Amino acid sequence: MLLTGLGLGIALGFAMQRGRFCVTGAFRDLWVTGNTRWITAFLIVIAVQSVGVFTLDAVGVISLSSSAFPWLATVLGAFLFGFAIVLAGGCATGTYYRAGEGLVGSWLALIFYALFSAISKTGVLATGVSGLRSVTVEAATVHGLFGVSPWLLIAVLASAVGLLVRHHLRKRPGARLATLPPRKRGIAHLLFEKQWGAFTTALVIAALAILAWPLSWATGREAGLGITGPSSNIVNYLVSGDAEVIDWGVYLVIGILTGAFIAAKGSGEFRIRIPDAITTVRSIAGGALMGIGASLAGGCTIGNAMVNTASFELQGWVAFGFMILGTGAATRLFITGPSKARSARNAAAAGSPSQATAPGPSAARASVRR
Amino acid sequence: MAVHVLETDGQVCPFPIVEAKEAIALLDLGDELVINFDCTQATDALPRWAAEEGYPVTNFDRVGDAAWTITVQKA
């Protein structure tokens, strides 16, 4: 039964790699460009999944339960996690699937994320983390707080997401979107080449996120998709040899890595890529802070912002908000900030008398590497 | 018409698109910007950015495993 986790993980990793589904990118776009296309895709996953989750709960396949909301740790942890994913260049799942594409920076982020998750959940930081998480308020869910049916919230969310989707489908650019020239045919083209739409990818991921609930439940792990707990479990298994910690979630995350590798390799998008010094340091720091942040907040962008939101837990929605704020802070510091310095450099380079004229593809500007 | 080359290999997203925006701002109308990149997400982000800005894409291709090039004309 645990193997269903591996299968689902492979499908998820495959879909994320081919669909270019990046939660960090979705949050970051809000601050860098103000673009809401990917955050809309992310909200589609939440809305569709919430319909599935509450249906499964209603028919008795799963039974949702909730506990008091650890508001302080959620606020602090989510902000920290949102900040860290910009440094690491990907959230937890993003880091898993980019590791499968051969990015060594993501390997480092992943190792430090798993290590610091274990340190925060069961290691030297565990006392502090559980201390902060013991600061709670009695309310647990959004529908509980307002005393309404969850179906009302689902209807509101679905309507809002529907409007966003309509907005994006209407403003499709007039110019044809450039695509890569096809080199494969038939099923190989469909699986390993054809570009997926953001919203199609979201629907595939939503279906997998719903399916995760009953499959995980059947093995005794009473939850939906989750990344941080399983990553911590892998570290605990490796250092203690205790096979008891290997659960459905461990198979899931190994599946994500495998599925992303299959997708990347099959489409010629796998290559071992070594980061430069700054990216290396940022990946390590980002990974470590992600582990602490997700453990404090009770989940990452998937477990909290995509899954606990679908079950309308306060922790999920508050974490979602503070992750976006954390992403904004890091974006200001590391992306829009340093780019000002780069702009100055670019202007100096472009101003130098090296303007090439057509038709030769001469470089008018020295290559700029960060 | 001049052709300018922006090398972003080794840079993770969103730096390829951030740099492309800065670079194209400095070009004259009709100039082309060749952007070489190896961040997978940019295969989605760069052509979409070009389409939304109304910049014609005169070339978009793979140059190897996980390596791409796109040429955007300032219009």
TrEMBL record, chain B:
It holds the Pfam family TusA. Signal peptide: none annotated. Residues 6-30 form the UPF0033 domain. CDD domains: SirA_YedF_YeeD (cd00291). SUPFAM superfamilies: SirA-like (SSF64307). It comes from the Bacteria. InterPro entries: TusA-like, TusA-like_sf. Belongs to the sulfur carrier protein TusA family. This is Oxidoreductase.
